[in-house]
Amino acid sequence: MYGIDEREAFVSRRRTTSMSLPSLPPGWRVWNEETGGRVILAYRPDVFNADAFPAACLPTIYVTNGSPRRRPGAGSVETDTWQVTLFFEPEIEATTTQYDSREAAVAGATETAQSFADGEIDYREAYQIPREEYFEKLDELIDHEQGER
Predict the structure, then answer these.
(1) Is the model more confident about 139 or about 42?
(2) Is there a smaller number of Cβ atoms within 10 Å at the N or the C end of the chain?
(3) Distance CA 53, CA 96 (A)
(4) pLDDT score of 113 more than 50
């Protein structure tokens, strides 16, 4: 949906804003929220920040009503359907769910973040070529944050 350059721009900005979401699970942050529009959630931007791991490995959840097609300009065409997509990298899409309204999609994004935090999403399954060091770090972070609850 979004290219590496666009995603790295989000990572380098480390931009957070307040959001009309219920509280997010441990590790998840609001990265960007457009009033009445797109929302981006990021998981542990302090870890996946290009120092220890490539910035493109930052797990993100996108809430958008743009076209889900992966072609230039497609995301700028608004639709009546909202999508919630969890990415592990720009080309590694773990889940996509569609909703009829932004409010339902925002609730769905929170549920997706919670499922991730609870270890219910198998990130290994999304990869054709495993990134073992990345998986080990995700395992460590998720296990640690589950222990803090």
Answers:
(1) 42
(2) C
(3) 24
(4) yes
Q: Smallest Cα–Cα separation from 25: which of 92, 89, 124, 119?
A: 119
At 97, the amino acid letter reads T
Q: In the predicted model, what is the mean pLDDT of residues 73-77?
A: 58
Phi-psi region of 74 (alpha: psi -120 to 50; beta: other; left: phi over 0): alpha
Question: Region 79-83: what's the mean pLDDT?
Answer: 88
Domain spans of the chain? 4-147
What Å distances lie between residue 143 and 53, 95, 126, CA to CA?
19, 21, 20
User: What does the radius of gyration of the chain's CA atoms come to, in whole angstroms?
Assistant: 14
Closest CA to 40 of 70, 72, 75, 73: 75
Beta bridge partners of 86: 61, 95
> Token pair 């743009």 is at which residue?
66
Go through the chain and tell me how many residues it has: 149
